[in-house]
Fold this sequence. Notes:
Chain A is mostly helical.
Amino acid sequence: MGAFDFDVVQRSFGYLFREGMTFTLTLTAMSALGGIVFGTLLAMMRLSSFRVLAVVATGYVNLMRSIPLLLVIFWFYFLVPYIGAWITGSSQPIRVGAFASSVITFVMFEAAYYSEIMRAGIPSISRGQVSAGYALGLNYWQTMGTVVLRRLSAT
Amino acid sequence: MKYNWNWGILFQTSADGQQTWMMTLVHGLGWTLLAAVCAGVIALVFGSIVGVIRTTPLKWAVRLGNAYVELFRNIPLLVQLFLWYFVLPEVLPKAFGDAIKQMPPPWGSFVPAVIGLGLFTSARIAEQVRAGIQALPRGQSMAGTALGLTLPQTYRYVVLPMAYRIILPPLTSETMNLIKNTSVALTIGLIELTAAARSMQEFTFQVFEAFTAATVIYIVVNLTVVTLMRKFEKSIAVPGFIGPAAVGGGAH
């Protein structure tokens, strides 16, 4: 116990907090934001009356929920360069930094979890409210945006 | 973009020259499951004790239980494993610490991984046990007292049998989480499923075959767990009280 050198904490204070903690918080904020956006879209897909959309979203969420985050991180770290190359049409895998790769991973992983929270919340808003939205002449997106999601964010 | 798919790699001899890569992954799965089962037992025992303590009328015990839960829930699992693996042998008396460090290879990382995962999960289970007990109408424990049961008897015969039935669905997802969380143990050197897939990827460069195989194995394991727990839930449901259908309804 005497061999401990707690002074090292003080010496690396700047590194710990200015860099380490800032990085953690940035990553958390970015992936939470992205996760909420994509999670909401996923939840709407799962509850949509288009069966194909619902099946795709359900499959995605169940897949994400049944494999470890670490495995998802590995997957995307290796997969994103290939997808990037496929999109840009280049013959070599493109370079993606660890940061971009981790943000993408967290957004895709968190989206699955947020969508489950959203999906549990959306049916709790009574059908009458949605019907009221349609009765007022709002279309699907207006109803979703101004009635359902507005109510959901309050709960 | 070119990627050379080669599924045959799974049946080729692995880096140790003795077994196929498929068997390497299966061995990894074995460690994943063993770690999950051992940690699960620790988690269930400690989680139940702490969860029950937090519902007793003893104020100081409740505070102690709350502190336990907050401590293990608020430190990332990765940091907890590092503490058990790197820091604990240094804090203990020297002879004891050295004995821990000299444990033969898989056990040297297996034991800290199981302790860390077990205690981390126990805090989450304690939270669910507490919620399950408090979800019961107060009248039930009062009825126990009115019948002349002591506090331990009330818990044993009245409260806990119903509370465990209520929390079975969240316990199922906690079991799935535990199986997935064992992958974090690769950072302290346990060759479980994710680590096995990663070493396969590093030796063969067949990235997507290795990770696809691991992904499929995880999905199969988790589906099995969910199916078994559903069956178990149905078999122990008390007719008229809490059936799978009533839990799904969520209104209680």
